[in-house]
Design goal:
Layout lengths: L1 H22 L1 H4 L5 H11 L3 H12 L19 H11 L11 H18 L3 H10 L1 H9 L10 H21 L1
Length: 173
C-alpha cells in the first residue's frame, strides 16, 4: 500500500511537471485568495500548503461551489458545521456569508486547526474534514490507521489532498 501511494505521488509529480512545462504549474495549482489563506493560516497555525490543497480539492477555487450534500463555498462547509464554527470563533456571520471567500476560508482553516489539534496525524485531520469529526473520532478511537478507513471516498480524498499538498509545497517552497 505504501509503495502504491509513493508511486502515485511520483507519477502525479511527473505529470504536473510535464504539464507545467506547457501550461505553467502555477496556473494548475494557483494560490488564489492568498491574502485570506495566509492571514488565517498564520492566525490558526495551519500549514499553508494544506489549506490550498483543501480549497483546490474541495471547490477548485470556485467561491460559489455547492455540493450534493449542501456544502458551500471554497472550502465546502455545510451550514451545520458553519453554525458550530461560528460559536467557536465568536462570529455573527450569516449562512449567506459562506459564499464570501474571506468568511469561508476563515471557517475552513479554523476547522482544519481544530482537526489538526485533535488528531495525531494530518491524514486523520483531513479525514475529519471530509467525513466529519465524530466519524473520524470513532475510527481513531478504534485504532484504525488512516489508510484503512472504511470509507473509500474518504480514503481517496485523503490521498488527493496529501498529494496536492506535496505539489503546492514543491511549487511554492
Amino acid at each position: 500500500m505504501k509503495f502504491f501511494f509513493k508511486f502515485i505521488i511520483i507519477l502525479t509529480l511527473l505529470i504536473v511537471l510535464f504539464v507545467g512545462a506547457f501550461y505553467g504549474a502555477h496556473q494548475l495549482y494557483p494560490k488564489k485568495y492568498s491574502e485570506y489563506v495566509e492571514l488565517y493560516c498564520e492566525k490558526y497555525d495551519v500549514p499553508i500548503d494544506l489549506a490550498y490543497s483543501v480549497i483546490k480539492c474541495e471547490s477548485g477555487f470556485d467561491p460559489n461551489a455547492e455540493s450534493k450534500i449542501g456544502a458551500i463555498g471554497l472550502m465546502q462547509i455545510t451550514p451545520e458545521t458553519f453554525e458550530w464554527i461560528l460559536t467557536k470563533i465568536d462570529d455573527n456571520s450569516e449562512m449567506s456569508d459562506l459564499y464570501d471567500p474571506k468568511t469561508n476560508i476563515r471557517a475552513g482553516i479554523y476547522l482544519l486547526k481544530l482537526n489538526l489539534a485533535d488528531f495525531e496525524s494530518t491524514e486523520y485531520a483531513i479525514a475529519a474534514y471530509h467525513a466529519g469529526r465524530s466519524k473520524a473520532q470513532s475510527w481513531f478511537d478504534e485504532g484504525i490507521k488512516p489508510e484503512d478507513i472504511p470509507y473509500e471516498e474518504t480514503n481517496a480524498y485523503i490521498k488527493r489532498v496529501m498529494i496536492t499538498s506535496k505539489i503546492y509545497n514543491l511549487l511554492y517552497q
